[in-house]
Amino acid sequence: MKWTDINDIAIELDEAHPDVDPQYVRFTDLHDWVCELAGFDDDPNHSNEKILEAIQMAWIEERD
Fold first, then answer.
1. DSSP 2
2. Structural domains of the chain sorted by starting position, each given as residue range(s) with its CATH number in brackets
3. Across the chain, what does the average pLDDT equal?
4. Residue 15 and which of 25, 36, 48, 62 are 20 to 30 A apart at CA?
5. pTM of the model
């Protein structure tokens, strides 16, 4: 997965962190968790606030 695979990342995060409310995740933690996903193979430095916000919003939608 790459940073642009927003929906795939959201699904993987939801499976990896079922007890976490994505609405309250700090971007620093979100960044770390994305980088730790098994299928993630993009440069950790290629993320930004806009990408992290999109991932967070997709994760919230996935949870609903």
1. -
2. 6-63 (1.10.10.600)
3. 97
4. 48
5. 0.95
